Amino acid sequence: MKVFVTIQHPAHVHFFRNAIAELEDDGHDVHVFAREKEMAVELLQLYDIEHEVLAGTASGLSQLARVQATYEARLLHRAIQSKPDVIAAIGGVAAAHVAKVVGARSVIFYDTEHASLIQNLAFPFASVVYTPDCYRGSIGPKQVRYSGYHELAYLHPNRFEPDPTIVSDLGLDPDDTFVVLRLIEWGASHDVGQGGFGDVKDVVTQLEDAGAEVLITSERSLPPEIESRRATVEPHRMHDLLAFANLFVGEGATMAAESAVLGTPAIYVNTLTMGYTDELDERYGLLFNYQDEDRHKLALKKAISILEGDEDWDARRQQLLSDKIDTTDVVLRGIKGHSRQSNDQSQTPDMEA
Known about the structure:
Rossmann fold, about 15% strand, 2 domains, seven-stranded parallel sheet, about 40% helix, five-stranded parallel sheet, 12 strands, alpha/beta, about 350 residues
């Protein structure tokens, strides 16, 4: 087959990279198209994934609309030239539209219920939409639910083994207690009107008073008093860092979920929740959601209790892994056109429409 994969966020690189490698190993012709977004292009280069950049960055929603239109027009031009059989994407507005025009099959993966703009623009045109089984929305007959999370496409033990040298490379001792603090920019369309922490300096102070080193990864500028805590980590090593952290505290759902599936407890502070953040909280106790007006205070109280406690987080992770599947296998089945699976218990957990 000729397969187009579209990348518009760093997390999309991680999600598709193992599937891209396997498809190419099986002799399929894979073309990757990207938009400049944070470190997405840098990650493609680090993983030696051949790609073409179709559009640049955007600051603000109005500019994002123009950039998206450029991306879609250029993707359409490439599709008319190359005639792909399948176009795969996360979210997939451009992928679904272009595939419809050129007669290709569009395979969309999604896990974010509140991103209604993307859903309204993409889902009606998509051939199939794959969602985790904890996804709260019903998309209709084209929806295929699977027992997994996006993060298990690249952090399942079949796909990832963390490198412990990240700890010493950052000047830490293996016995040090450290927390990864993630702050987001609040610039996405679905982030408008939302919020996370109040006073970031207070977050750092309380975590340090509890005996933890604080390593900050932030999309936005930091107050001068805490700028020295910003961690310089190569983007492809961030998951190593999360795996060996004692705790994750942050406003970003993706990194919170990544930490959780790696067995690192995660404090997620954001007025928005998704089906997967709720499930990681309520079913597995690996992620703790804080959305309400007192979220700052309650989140820090829980963070300190975790740092002072002695829970068996690995046992919780093992339960999760026994329930969930390697999501790269789902991606490959979707791209190859196998959207249903037997209920035979000898198979991996079933997917259902």
